[in-house]
Amino acid sequence: MKVDPFLVEQFMNAFEKKAELNLAETCVDPFTLGDFLDFVGQCRFFDSIKKMKLTYGEIEGSPALRQGLADLYEHMKPQNILISGGAIAANFLVFYSLVEPCDTVISIFPAYQQLQSVAKSFGANVKLLPLHESNGWLPNIKELDNLVDKRTKLIVINNPHNPTGSLIESDSLTEICEIAERNGAYLLSDESYRGLWVTPTDSVPSAVDISDSAIATGSFSKPFSLSGLRLGWIAANQRIVRQCMLHRDYTTISNNMISDALATLAVKHADLIFNRSLRIIRANHEIVSRWVDDEPRIRWIPPKAGSSGFLRYNMNISSKKLCLQLLKEKSVLLVPGYCFGMEGYLRIGYGCGTRTLKAGLSEFKDFLNSMR
Ligand SMILES: Cc1ncc(COP(=O)(O)O)c(C=O)c1O
């Protein structure tokens, strides 16, 4: 089966280990295992799981983990949650379970490419819903309505949005849900960055708490800072969860038991961990904002949520060349816009440690000055 190369993943695989100052990553400063256990007051955790028999474990994810994740929503119960190998496997499973050849799938653009390419590889007619900088990188609801046709099976959004950090607010999200419902389609809302609100008063409900037609996917990599667990989840009504489970049997018997136990600890301390993540992204957002204000050839629409922003540069050089030159000369990594199909832009991840961010931005400034 043919599938388009996943450009952002290919770029990260090739270059992320080569940079001393990685400003390309979107995970919020990952914990070391020791720091995580200290942070949640569980230094003796590994003693406590020594008697764990390494079986396949709980097939759909442990009850405690599913309960802890259900508690992150207003209307979800453990049976509405299915654990997966990261949000990437959760998204894949939704496409694999629901999309058939000749279905129409409407997906936002630019976006994490998985949200467009997997449905295309399954033979769907993928229509792109463009997000415009002039509209704060938000979808135009009318444009979405016009794209819907009789064969529309799935509408795909990512809220908060990677790479721009835009946030679809409650009212618009409700309108998107209504379009899906009216047309008998599902809405897949990739909510990997949910909870990372830059402004403390902001908070947007999950699409699954608005509509029965919605499916939300989530991640332990971003606000939980535990990407190494490689866990994520699907939250949806039970019919959809059963449909996903039917398909998941062919790809995943169960997930890693040790990761499940660590993730269960994490959801028990979700508030504490989210507060740490919020401290990091809010401080770092301010640093990048000041830096951008001071940099005549760079501008951005300040992200409202998540851990990444899309920098627009005003220079006559391709995004790939710029990033590779920056990496070579300054050991700083950014993601070139071409990985999102958008020349003239760079993705910056500002969830990293503040020292790394400051050092990376300072090197980037020197680099830009040397190009004048
Ligand atoms: C929008 C989006 N969805 C899914 C993923 C995959 O996340 P995970 O590490 O949970 O597989 C990413 C990773 O960057 C992402 O940005």
Topology:
Layout: H1 7-15, E1 21-22, H2 33-39, H3 45-48, H4 63-70, E2 81-84, H5 86-98, E3 104-109, H6 114-121, E4 125-130, H7 141-147, E5 152-158, H8 170-182, E6 186-190, E7 214-219, E8 232-235, H9 238-248, H10 257-268, H11 270-293, E9 298-299, E10 308-313, H12 319-330, E11 332-333, E12 335-336, E13 345-349, H13 354-370
Parallel strand pairs: 1-11, 3-4, 3-5, 5-6, 6-7
Antiparallel strand pairs: 2-8, 7-8, 9-10, 10-13, 12-13
Helix pairs in contact: 4-10, 5-6, 5-9, 11-13
The structure holds pyridoxal-5'-phosphate.
Features:
2 domains, binds pyridoxal-5'-phosphate, 13 strands, Aspartate Aminotransferase, domain 1, four-stranded antiparallel sheet, alpha/beta, globular, Aspartate Aminotransferase, domain 2, 13 helices
Walk me through what this model shows:
The chain has helices at 7-15, 33-39, 45-48, 63-70, 86-98, 114-121, 141-147, 170-182, 238-248, 257-268, 270-293, 319-330, 354-370, and strands spanning 21-22, 81-84, 104-109, 125-130, 152-158, 186-190, 214-219, 232-235, 298-299, 308-313, 332-333, 335-336, 345-349. It is an alpha/beta fold and 372 residues long. The protein folds into two domains: 7-33 and 272-370, Aspartate Aminotransferase, domain 1, CATH 3.90.1150; 51-269, Aspartate Aminotransferase, domain 2 (3-Layer(aba) Sandwich), CATH 3.40.640. It has a seven-stranded mixed sheet, sandwiched between helices. It has a four-stranded antiparallel sheet with strand order 9-10-13-12. The chain has a two-stranded parallel sheet with strand order 1-11. A hairpin with an 8-residue loop joins β12 and β13 (345-349). α5 (86-98) packs parallel to α6 (114-121).
